[in-house]
Amino acid sequence: MENEYKLTKEYKVSYDLFREAYRAYQKKYIYPKSYVYMTLFLVLAASFVAASFVEPTNTLGYILIVVCLAFAFREWYNPRKIRNSLVDTVKELGEPLYKIGIGEDFIDIMTIVFPEGKIEGELADEDIPQEIEPMPEKSRIEIGAGYKLLEYDKFFLLLDRKTMFYILPKDDFSEDELAVVRATYKKKKKNK
């Protein structure tokens, strides 16, 4: 399996990098939709406020104002709540070791498992097996219509149909290895 990869590399994603990358993902794919809904609810609330000046005794108008403001607040609050919850979960997991394999038309990403009963900080060099086995399930991203690569200063975001994303820190890679990662998106453009 190793020989079909153009690049294989092990890396870690720190808590701070995950937080920054998830925020970048939200800015690109979550916040725009959230802002549209938030604006829609605020416009509706403003129209109900204007209608309440015409008919000040209409209690339904006041109820609808409160409902629209609550929905607008929910659209603002939920993405931040989800991010904080997810980032806290990642913080509790620590920094697992990942392995990426880039092939001709696909990218495999695996989580490396340490020996049972040991945590990362307790591993000595002699405890690490010569060949670390990946978890049985690996994630495969097909380089095609659903694949997208976003490059930032410190990391890459590899997206699979905008529903799943993977973070690849640049610090762990050489310039030649970064060129191989960048070439995956150029290859995708050629296939169109």
Assign the structural class, choosing from mainly alpha, mainly beta, alpha/beta, alpha+beta, or little secondary structure: alpha+beta
How do the helices and strands follow one another from N- to C-terminus? Answer: EHHEEEEEEH
Total of helices: 3
Largest sheet: spatial strand order = 1-2-3-4
Beta strand %: 15-25%
The residue ranges in which pLDDT falls below 50 over 5 or more consecutive positions are 114-124
The major sheet is characterized as: 4 strands, antiparallel
Please give the number of β-strands: 7
Question: How confident is the prediction overall: mean pLDDT?
Answer: 83
- The percentage helix is 40-55%
Described by the principal axes of the CA atoms, the overall outline is elongated
Radius of gyration: 23 Å
In whole angstroms, the N-to-C terminal distance is: 27 Å
